[in-house]
Amino acid sequence: MPNAAAHRLGAALVVGGISHHAEQQSGQATAKPLVHAAMAALCGTLPDILEPAFHPNHRQFFHSMGFAGILGYGLYSLHRWKPEPGDELGHILKTVGLIAGGSYLIHLAMDFITPKSLPLM
Questions:
Q1: By the 8 A CB rule, do 12 and 41 touch?
Q2: Are the beta carbons of 45 and 79 closer than 8 angstroms?
Q3: Which of 13, 73, 89, 113 has its CA 20 to 30 A from that of 82?
Q4: Where does residue 37 fall: left (phi above 0), alpha (psi -120 to 50 degrees), or beta otherwise?
Q5: Which of 49-53, 73-77, 83-87, 102-106 has the lowest mean pLDDT?
Q6: Is 73 buried (19+), middle (13-18) or exposed (0-12) by CB count in 10 A?
Q7: Helix-helix angle 4-26:88-112, to 10 degrees
Q8: Given this model, what pLDDT does residue 1 score?
Q9: What does the pLDDT look like over 46-72, one tens digit per residue?
Q10: What is the pTM of this model?
Q11: What does the alpha-carbon distance between residue 88 and residue 65 come to, in Å, rounded to a whole number?
């Protein structure tokens, strides 16, 4: 069963890898993938902050397939949102939202493959 360290590492590797791939596609080379990976590692345990694992059956709404679907749709909408040119705050909020939400979904995916899996709701 994944613990907090595994959730953080999984989120950092996936988000950092996606960020690195996106930079390679655009011909850039910056430290952004490392920053994004660090942010993902910080957000990798968000579901367990909302629903602490005090007992084996702690997985409720924020650890459910239903919430994963809602969050996935929200991330899809956020990804499609185009902040106005020159709106640096909008670009920062979009990036932070995608990283935090993606880290949350990675956590749920890691919990999904455990013997307890995730509840429907």
A1: yes
A2: no
A3: 13
A4: alpha
A5: 49-53
A6: exposed
A7: 130
A8: 66
A9: 999 999 878 777 789 999 999 999 999
A10: 0.93
A11: 33
Query: 3-state DSSP call for residue 11?
Result: helix
Written as six digits, the tokens of 84 are 């106005």
- Both tokens of 97, joined, read 């939202």
CA dihedral 44, 12, 80, 89 (to 10 degrees): 80
Chain centroid to CA 116 = 21
User: What sign has the CA pseudo-torsion 84, 87, 92, 97?
Assistant: negative
Paired tokens of 35: 């920053």
Give first-to-last CA distance, the chain, whole Å. Answer: 21
Place of tokens 């996936």: 14
